[in-house]
Amino acid sequence: VTGTSRCGVLRFSYPGAVPRWLVLRPNSDAGLGEVSVDPAAGTLQGRNPAHRIYAGQGQPAGFAGHFRVSLLSAGQRVVEWGTALGGTVSHNATSAKGKGALAYARVGGAGGAVELSLCNSFSSAAAAAANEAANYRQLSNRASGFFRRARATTRETSSGMAEFLLCRAVAVLATSCATTSPIEFPRNGGRPASIS
């Protein structure tokens, strides 16, 4: 994990022939989160409306966290995608809204590294995309150097640690955090089968 003032860069190393799945779920206690996936652009986006926690507890706070996750690695593309809502997985769907909504995507190939940018804004989805555009060169350069140095000094993390890091990064940068994947992803590259 590395970043700029409004964006972060995440790198996940998938061992062996493991399919490279990404899951995005907003952390909306009120069940009003929204997610979408754009397979052609290689992005997953979301919106997480903020609610008051003290005076007027539970009432809308008047703003939302908007977040955008994009593939950074050249030549990588989304080959399978969908959403889930209320325990129902919808393959090839591009958006979902409500309690438990999530979007998923599988990056082509198997094993190896996937680098992602994670940008946010408390203004709009367009502002999150603008933050990504404004920081793209810096993100790309920082990611390559950072991960090259990290590889020289550390071992690859386990998938559990990668999930923990993603959860923490999303919580900090996008006010969204999923501690465990609610979808069972088969290791053989098949489609998600069920939601737990």
List keywords for this structure.
196 residues, alpha+beta, 9-stranded antiparallel sheet, 2 helices, 9 strands, 23% helix
Number of strands: 9
Q: List unreliable stretches of 5+ residues.
A: 153-189
Distance between the termini: 28 Å
Give the topology string: H per helix, E per strand. Answer: EEEEEEEEEHH
The percentage of residues in β strands lies in 35-45%
Mean pLDDT: 75
Class derived from helix and strand content: alpha+beta
Overall 3D shape: globular
Oligomeric state of the chains in view: single chain
Helix percentage: 10-25%
Q: With helices defined by DSSP (H or I, 4 residues minimum), what is the helix count?
A: 2
| CA radius of gyration | 16 Å
Largest sheet: 9 strands, antiparallel
